């Protein structure tokens, strides 16, 4: 343990934190009732995964993604007084194979197979991107070269994605493994807005509990001042991704696993009784989760609708991660809104872009070459754990017992991923979860995450995102709690008492309150009396 005041990191040396490299990644690539694989195994080193089964298998039901190429994907065509049903995939193919040389023609093609939205959808961002952001040469390059490749990729859907994709529904633990090529094909379809039944989101619509996947909502945004130029930068990330995946030189032979995990009600920790002690902490004000959390469980500060505002105005932690690693976007196709004790874990994604800035100042900074090692199945040693914190209008509410418990359960749902696997000790890379857009308190949230990491027997790498004061205060609190041998249960009890004091006593910060309660030996905390609920 280092106490050097001048360093931009504190706690345990980062190199001592356990990582996943070289270990069998979880879950293993074995098909089961809980794991759907859409490619043939074994893949073999450096081979491109082949779609499995060989022939397209059509399914159109409530448990699977409704595919644009399904024969059930029909729409009504009116001819004067008569109307008939047309196969939508035929229209998609016909419209997309015609020359498309401008954003207006692309709009026309998209509308041709989404005629219901002719007067509703607008394509402001798409048009202004080519008119104002790119120069003539870049625009020509897009329409002459890249777009035909994106279209070609999208139209391979029935040969590339042959098995029905199950929906990752609430309360069901399930994993889906896709090849990078299959993911690229699904994203090409999302870009071209071909997914059926995914365009309305009122409370009664079929997919109202799922995130957006078609890009029409994104294309509709308006850049009306320099403060939202970052929207162009978001589109540049997507284009960078498509350039790479459609390039003749790139080898796209990896696989990615998308998993939904729910904490079984029998496994919900009884926090007040927990005798776990805090694990090791490495804390730094430098670096980011994605750059410096290699080989760890990297936390996505998520929305319950995974991806949050990535296809809208958002450009904070979750959205930026999805933009630089667009394979994450496919989770939006099949992940139902997360419940309080659920997490979504994504293993193996590649990073395609570099960036600078944050929120309105976000900028695409060029191609990123991802050198993260891969396992024997070409799955990258990158694991992302999506957990959604609660949004707090009134900061006091986050200290309510039920909210403390909720955030502990939520983070534990993510941190306890793969507990029986060889990756069970891999450290967590996190930071100010729930403390930006969701307005939580960094001192509280860091503590709650340290507690659930301890409960899951994992060390923590914490990135304060430039805040050296916060680094110092979290490190001091962690050192103090460890030196006093304080348990997770004892911290839980102090936090409950803190909320009661917030109502009555003059304001003290949560850290000061904890120091005081422990130094002055608050008997209730140490004897665990009078606290009945978990
Ligand atoms: N690495 C480490 N820390 C970071 C990084 C990074 N790459 N980026 C940001 N931070 P926020 P939330 C720090 O607001 O409050 C999205 O729309 C930085 O200090 O993204 O949980 C989601 O979809 C920042 O203030 O997370 C949700 O709807 C803090 O992390 C919503 O925002 C919080 O980042 C979640 O909001």
Work out the strand percent: 5-15%
Helix content: 25-40%
Ligand identities? ligand AR6
What would the average pLDDT be, to the nearest integer? 95
Dominant shape: elongated
Largest sheet: 10 strands, mixed
**What is the number of E strands?**
14
Count of helices? 17
Alpha-beta classification: alpha/beta
The low-pLDDT segments are none
Give the CA-CA distance, first to last residue: 33 Å
Taking all Cα atoms into account, the compactness measure Rg is 25 Å
**Adjacency order of strands in the biggest sheet:** 1-7-14-13-8-12-9-6-5-2
Task: Give a short synopsis of this structure.
The protein is of the alpha/beta class and 534 residues long.
Description of the molecule:
This protein has helices at residues 88-97, 103-112, 124-133, 136-155, 157-160, 180-191, 216-219, 230-246, 289-292, 317-324, 331-334, 401-415, 442-455, 468-483, 488-504, 510-519, 523-527, and strands at 9-11, 35-37, 74-79, 82-87, 174-179, 255-262, 281-284, 297-302, 342-347, 353-356, 363-367, 383-388, 428-431, 460-463. The protein has 534 residues and is α/β, with parallel strands linked by helices. The strands form 3 sheets. It has a 10-stranded mixed β-sheet with strand order 1-7-14-13-8-12-9-6-5-2, with helices on both faces. It has a two-stranded antiparallel ribbon with strand order 3-4. A hairpin with a 2-residue loop joins β3 (74-79) and β4 (82-87). α4 (136-155) packs across α6 (180-191). The structure holds ligand AR6.
């Amino acid at each position: 343990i280092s106490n050097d005041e001048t360093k931009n990191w504190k706690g345990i040396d980062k190199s001592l934190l356990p990582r996943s490299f070289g270990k069998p990644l979880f879950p293993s690539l074995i098909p089961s009732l809980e794991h759907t694989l859409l490619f043939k195994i074994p893949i073999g080193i450096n081979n491109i995964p082949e779609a499995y089964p060989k022939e397209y298998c059509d399914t159109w039901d409530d448990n699977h993604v409704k595919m644009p190429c399904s024969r059930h994907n029909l729409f009504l065509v009116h001819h004067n007084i008569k109307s008939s049903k047309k196969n939508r995939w035929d229209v998609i193919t016909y419209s997309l194979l015609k020359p498309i040389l401008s954003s207006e023609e692309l709009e026309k093609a998209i509308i041709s197979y989404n005629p219901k939205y002719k007067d509703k959808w607008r394509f402001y961002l798409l048009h202004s991107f080519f008119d104002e952001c790119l120069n003539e040469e870049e625009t020509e390059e897009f329409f002459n070269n890249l777009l035909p490749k994106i279209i070609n990729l999208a139209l391979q859907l029935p040969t590339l994605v042959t098995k029905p994709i199950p929906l990752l529904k609430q309360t069901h633990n399930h994993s889906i493994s896709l090849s990078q090529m299959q993911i690229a094909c699904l994203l090409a379809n999302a870009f071209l807005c071909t997914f059926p039944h995914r365009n309305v989101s009122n409370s009664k619509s079929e997919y109202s509990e799922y995130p957006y996947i078609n890009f029409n909502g994104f294309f509709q945004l308006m850049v009306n001042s320099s403060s939202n130029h970052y929207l162009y930068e978001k589109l540049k990330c997507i284009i960078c991704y498509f350039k790479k995946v459609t390039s003749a030189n790139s080898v796209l032979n990896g696989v990615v696993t998308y998993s939904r995990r729910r904490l079984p009600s029998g496994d919900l920790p009884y926090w007040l009784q927990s005798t776990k002690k805090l694990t090791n902490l490495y804390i730094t004000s430098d670096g980011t989760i994605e750059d410096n959390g290699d080989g760890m469980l990297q936390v996505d500060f998520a929305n319950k609708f995974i991806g949050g505002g990535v296809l809208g105005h958002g450009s904070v932690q979750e959205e930026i991660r999805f933009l630089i690693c667009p394979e994450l976007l496919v989770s939006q196709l099949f992940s139902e809104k997360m419940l309080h004790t659920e997490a979504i874990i994504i293993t193996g994604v590649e990073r395609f872009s570099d960036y600078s800035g944050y929120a309105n100042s976000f900028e695409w900074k060029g191609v990123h070459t991802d050198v993260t090692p891969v396992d024997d199945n070409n799955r990258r040693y990158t694991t992302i754990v999506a957990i959604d914190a609660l949004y707090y209008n009134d900061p006091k509410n986050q200290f309510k017992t039920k909210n403390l418990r909720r955030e502990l359960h939520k983070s534990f749902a993510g941190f306890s991923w793969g507990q029986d696997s060889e990756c069970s000790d891999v450290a967590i890379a996190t930071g100010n979860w729930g403390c930006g857009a969701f307005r939580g308190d960094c001192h509280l949230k860091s503590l709650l995450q340290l507690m659930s990491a301890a409960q899951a027997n994992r060390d923590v790498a914490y990135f304060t995102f430039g805040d050296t004061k916060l680094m110092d205060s979290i490190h001091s609190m962690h050192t103090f709690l460890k030196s006093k041998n304080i348990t997770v249960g004892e911290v839980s009890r102090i936090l409950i008492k803190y909320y009661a004091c917030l109502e009555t006593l003059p304001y003290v910060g949560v850290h000061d309150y904890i120091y005081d309660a422990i130094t002055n030996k608050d008997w209730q905390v140490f004897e665990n009396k009078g606290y009945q609920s978990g």
